[in-house]
Design brief:
- By secondary structure, the chain is of the alpha/beta class.
- It has a single domain, classed as 3-Layer(aba) Sandwich (Rossmann fold), CATH 3.40.50.150.
- About 35% of the residues lie in helices and about 15% in strands.
- It has ten helices and eight strands.
- Strands 1, 2, 3, 4, 5, 6, 7 and 8 form an eight-stranded mixed β-sheet that branches.
- Helix 1 crosses helix 2.
- The chain is globular.
- It starts with 15 loop residues before the first helix and ends with a strand.
- The mean pLDDT is about 95.
Length: about 270
């Protein structure tokens, strides 16, 4: 989709990608996004830590898949507003020939997509304006096929995305549709909002955040660890399995540099046989 064909940006209505940019300390958001994001932070201040831990998770996963598993193709779905280091910068720092396709459905991401296209000479990056709820639009796009060879392994990243897909839209079916088209040896990297917090007060705060997103026009569907693990059915989970983002192969101490008991997002990485 060209920039001219993309839908216009409604700056009066909060958008999840721009709210996430706010949590990360970015600058690509509007007053409506700030108001909604600050309302969330008031109820759930740890969301800022969770967003930053999620970025670190993406970096570690990308580096691990490129360095230890030889992955040279990446598909980042729901890429969000560019925040350095972007996925292609991490992958190409390990393997300059790595190829990356980014997708998102937010028009503002399309406007900033040029920042995602600064590839190494040996590699390649592309941006596709598409919606994950129509996986065929992603998989059949010209941009994707010009950049990735689906007969070779691809690492699919759906970080902090599927909790915006309600059960009625069958997030598991969407993921299977994506993975079914990919070659054996492909990977799924996924992080997801936590729905089974251990105490009633925490549960009430999660419910309040869900309501804030609902008022902003966005469905938010936090899920339990068991539900998130179900997204990996039929795949081979890498160690340490489904855990929290800051606990997935942390670079620092066993608690990922955060106090023990910190809640972030559930996460896992798995390989297709």
């Amino acid at each position: 989709m060209s920039e001219q064909d993309a839908p216009s940006i409604d700056t009066a209505k909060p958008h999840s990608a721009r709210m996430y940019d706010y949590y990360l300390g970015g600058k690509t958001h509007y007053e409506a996004d700030v108001q909604a994001a600050e309302a969330v932070v008031t109820k759930l201040p740890e969301i800022v830590t969770a967003a930053r831990a999620n970025r670190d998770f993406m970096i570690r996963v990308t580096r691990t898949l490129a360095a230890e598993y030889g992955v040279r193709q990446f598909l980042d779905i729901g890429s969000g507003i560019p925040t350095e280091p972007n996925l292609h910068q991490v992958a190409q720092s390990v393997a300059p020939e790595a190829r990356v396709v980014y997708t998102d459905n937010d028009p503002i991401v399309l406007q900033y997509a040029q920042a995602l296209l600064h590839s190494t000479p040996e590699g390649r990056t592309a941006y596709l304006h598409a919606d994950v709820t129509r996986p065929e639009a992603v998989l059949e796009s010209e941009e994707l096929h010009k950049t990735l060879d689906l007969d070779r392994p691809v690492a699919v990243s759906v970080n902090a995305l599927m909790h915006f897909i309600p059960d009625a839209q069958e997030p598991g079916r969407i993921l299977r549709a994506l993975l079914d088209r990919l070659a054996p040896g492909s990977f799924l990297s996924l992080s997801h909002g936590i729905g089974d917090v251990p105490d009633e007060e925490g549960s009430e705060r999660i419910d309040a955040v869900v309501e804030i997103y609902k008022r902003s026009g966005t469905v938010l569907a936090p899920r339990s660890r068991e539900q998130v693990a179900g997204f990996f059915d039929g795949l081979e989970l890498l160690d340490p399995g489904v855990t929290q983002v800051h606990l997935w192969r942390p670079d620092t101490d066993p608690h990922g540099g955060l106090p023990e008991g910190t809640l972030t997002l559930y996460a896992g990485v798995a390989r297709k046989s």
